[in-house]
Amino acid sequence: MKKKKKSKEDLDIDLFEKFFPLKGFDRKELRIPEICLAAVQNNFEVLEYVLEAHKTPELCLVAVQQDGIALQYVPKALRTQELSLIAVQNNGLALEYVPEALLKTKRPLALELCLAAVKQNSDAIAFVPESLMTMDLCLAAIKNDGFKLLYVPEALKTPELCHTAVKQYGLALRYAPKKLQKIPKLRKIFVRHCVKEALKELDNDKFIFP
User: Fold this and answer.
1) Structural domain contains residue 175
2) CA dihedral of residues 30, 32, 37, 39 (deg, nearest 10)
3) Which one of 118, 146, 172, 174 is least enclosed by Cβ atoms within 10 Å?
4) Is residue 170 included in any domain, yes or no?
């Protein structure tokens, strides 16, 4: 007898059970919203395996409040400005999953989203569209990690911004415009950083002499 092909709903439940074994529950109960809520409250990643019909705004909010990165499992229709803001404030890297439409319309709101994301995690600058890069946003990123000068548009790489970046992370000088790399003050900071790192390696017996 030919084995009956499983429906997408049953396959989703198989995955759901794999990542969140519900001992003592009948498979049919996995279609009960309350069970889904209990599962997501236990682990936000379970949201990925919840049936689409049960991904309510309330359930998605519970997941995103645990970890903003859960935004990637939220149906696009439910990724509102409000939910997206909560997500990036919780985990800046959730900016990667904010709908493109939200970042292209209502510029003030889009700027709020991007700035909130970068303030929470400077790595989020990698997901900020160049059209939304502002001096405040770039400054927020490099104050936390000078390396993020790499993502700053050339037009915003002012002497002041580059100084802040290099002061935070000496090797950021390599991402400064050529003419700024020649500024003595910045070069001194760069050299001090290199010497400090070399001495640190030497103290840890990791420095390799030629």
Assistant:
1) yes
2) -10
3) 174
4) yes
Instruction: Report the alpha-carbon distance of residue 113 to residue 100 in Å, rounded.
Output: 12
- What pTM did the predictor assign? 0.79
Whether the CA torsion 184, 186, 189, 195 is positive or negative: it is negative
| pLDDT at residue 48 greater than cutoff 90 | no
The domain tally of the chain equals 1
Band (53; pLDDT cuts 50, 70, 90): confident
Q: Is residue 75 part of a domain?
A: no
- Scanning the structure block, which residue is given the tokens 């991007």? 114
In the predicted model, is pLDDT for residue 169 greater than 60? Answer: yes
Give residue 23's pLDDT. 47
Separation CA 169–CA 47 (nearest Å): 38
Residue 53 lies in a domain: no
| More confident call, 6 vs 187 | 187
Question: Sign of dihedral through CA atoms 38, 42, 44, 47?
Answer: negative
Q: b vs e for 39-64, b when ≥16 Cβ sit within 10 Å of the residue's Cβ? A: bbeeebbbbbbbeeebbeeebbbbbb
* Residue 159 belongs to domain spanning: 133-204
How far apart CA 190 and CA 185 sit, in angstroms, is: 9
Residues 6 or more apart whose CB falls under 8 angstroms from that of 71 comprise 64, 79, 83, 84, 87, 94, 97, 98
Give 36's contacts (C-beta < 8 A, 6+ positions apart).
30, 46, 50, 51, 54, 59
